[in-house]
Amino acid sequence: MLTIDGPWINPWHAGLVAAVLLCSVTQLLLTRSDPDSPHMFRHHLLFGGLCLILSLSSKLMIDLAQRQAASLLESAAMLGFGLLLIRILGLTAFRVLLPALRMHPPRIMEDILLVITYIVWTLVWLRLAGLDLSGLVTTSAVITGVVAFSMQETLGNILGGLALQLDNSVRIGDWIRLDDVRGQVVEVHWRHTALRTNNGNLIVIPNSVLMKSKVDVYSRAGKPELRRWVHFWVEDGVPPREVINTVETALRQTHIEHISPLKAPECIVTDYRDGNIHYAVRYWLSNPAHDDGTDSAVRVHFYSALQRQNLSLAHPCMDIRLNRESERAAKLRQLAEIAVRKAALAKVKLFAGLTDEELGGLAQSLRNTPFVKDDIVTRQGAVAHWLYLLASGEAEVWYEAEGQPRRHCATLAAGDVFGEIGLLTGAPRGATVVAKTDALCYRLDKENFENILHARPELADEFAAILCERNLVLDALRTDAGPAAQVQQANYLSSIRRFFGLK
């Protein structure tokens, strides 16, 4: 046993004070790179203070003629000082020096090396304190067997965590799936691996479980893209190719955040069942943390696209008998809807010359075509023989010239009409229209407008004049001024007559 004597502040006491100061300086360095530093700082100060109290108490025991107790206290203080010094040096090396050299060893290596160093220092100190270790060595086999048997689960966790990090099968930052648990690996310790789910929960999984189970590493830093599947059903009366084209066109023309721009979304048929066709949208997610929100955005966009094509998702098959009251209510709702459409058409200059009966016929033929924000309603250069009446929401008109950035023409509000040139002449779209907000449009097809022009061909002159007026904004944006207004009007009139077969 060590013996002590001398003044209150001996070299051992000075060493303990120096350890506390070294601990403080080290923690200041660690605070900038490790979020756990404030907690370690407090723990080290408490432990260092305890060692200092033990050392000072040993001198008090000497004054009380308790030299054996004083020697025990001093030995315990110096043992604690050594452990504290080892921990400070280890943390400084693993969390300050090595990262500065761009080396990032696994955290479990830090834990294991520190534990081994603690054990070696304890054995060395026991030897310096005069303890004979020969008896301990002779019984080491028995002790090792007992410890190994009682701590087999703990040893399995330690070896499992070490193996996981040494072979890089599971890394910090990886997104993994284990049974019904999935999340991002945030920590790998000597006993467990911690996952952070998208819901913010912290899941702790023993390392031995990871070693024995099938782990799906579905995303990591070098290859973060994750393929997602969004399923839906449509009745089998709709041709699959029509559904696939509608969904793929809508998703590929619309920018949806967190979808990889390098791999276009695709729609496939996966099954036929109970009179319905099962489809799936497959896309590549660039950030697994936004899986549910991106799935929702994909559903919103392809549902809106299906609605625009007068398609709907499959409904459960049910036999429902409607009474006269429900039929009457449905008819009243239909009449109210037609009245709203008719009032909207009456405000459009293009239809100002139509009779009330003709407006009523057009109102019945309009189709509801919803769009969601950022949907492309019409694309410049495309050919489509229909007209849109914006019922609610806003849209923006853009002119695109080859080799030049696109230019903003106008912002359309509820009540505005666009696409009339395509309806009346069959010409390609002169500009691109994008939904600025969620919008509802009424669509008028050529077939529904053709009867009016054949019955009243004199309307063609009025329509040609209106088209000439509406085209002035695009002419101003083009590099060339275009033909004179009279020539344009004559050209439009000729196109209208030829398109509708008027004499």
CATH class of the largest domain: Mainly Beta
> How much of the polypeptide forms β-strand, as a percent range?
15-25%
Structural class: alpha+beta
CATH superfamily of the largest domain: Jelly Rolls
Which CATH architecture of the largest domain would you pick?
Sandwich
Which oligomerization state do the chains in this entry correspond to?
single chain
CATH topology of the largest domain: Jelly Rolls
Number of strands: 16
In which range does the helix fraction lie?
A: 40-55%
Q: Taking strands numbered 1, 2, ... along the chain, how are they ordered across the largest sheet?
A: 4-3-2-1-5
Q: Report mean pLDDT, rounded to a whole number.
A: 78
> Low-confidence parts, pLDDT < 50 over ≥5 residues?
1-9
Radius of gyration: 39 Å
Helical stretch count? 17
Q: What is the total domain count?
A: 4
Shape: elongated
Cα(first) to Cα(last) distance is 122 Å
Largest sheet: 5 strands, antiparallel
InterPro entries: cNMP-bd_dom, MscS_archaea/bacteria_type, MscS_channel_2nd
GO molecular function: mechanosensitive monoatomic ion channel activity
Transmembrane segments: 12-31, 43-62, 77-100, 112-130
Membrane topology: Multi-pass membrane protein
